Amino acid sequence: MIGLHKHDLIHQDLKPANIIINPISGIVKLTHYTIASRVSQETGAPLNPDQSQGTQAYMSAEQTGRMKRTPDYLSDFSALGVTFYEMLAGQLPFQSHYPLELVYCHLAKQPVSVQ
Question: Is 13 an active-site residue?
Fold first, then answer.
C-alpha cells in the first residue's frame, strides 16, 4: 500500500481476496488494480450505492459518495481495518444484503468491539 500511496494512487478495493501472502517468504502483494486511481482524479460526486466501485462491505465511508470528502489514502487504510476486523472477529463489522443499509452502517454505526 505504501508503494501505491507514494505514487498518489489509491487501490479502492482492498479486501482479503485481493491480498496475496507468500507463506514461505512472507511477502505480501496486492492484486486487482482495475479501479485504482490517482487521488487527484477523485471527484467526490454522489454515487448510486448499486453502482459504486469496490466491494461495499470493505468500503470507507467516503467511497459511498455520501460525504463531502473524496476517497484518498485513508480509504485504503479503512478497508484494511475492515479486513483485520474480519480476521479477528471471524465476520465483517457490518452485514446486510441491501446496499443502502451497508452505506448507512459505514456512515453512522460503530462495529461491535473485538475482544
Answer: yes
> Residue 114 gets which letter from DSSP?
P
The predicted model scores a pTM of 0.82
Mean pLDDT over each residue of the chain, to the nearest integer: 86
Nearest to 78 by CA among 26, 3, 10: 10
The catalytic residue among 13, 50, 72, 76 is: 13
CA angle in degrees (0–180, nearest 5) for 27-11-78: 90
Q: How many residues does the chain have?
A: 115
* Domain range summary for the chain, segments of one domain joined by +: 2-108
| Residues ≥6 apart with Cβ < 8 Å to 72 | 10, 39, 42, 62
| CATH number at 2-108 | 1.10.510.10
Contact 91, 72 (CB under 8 A): no
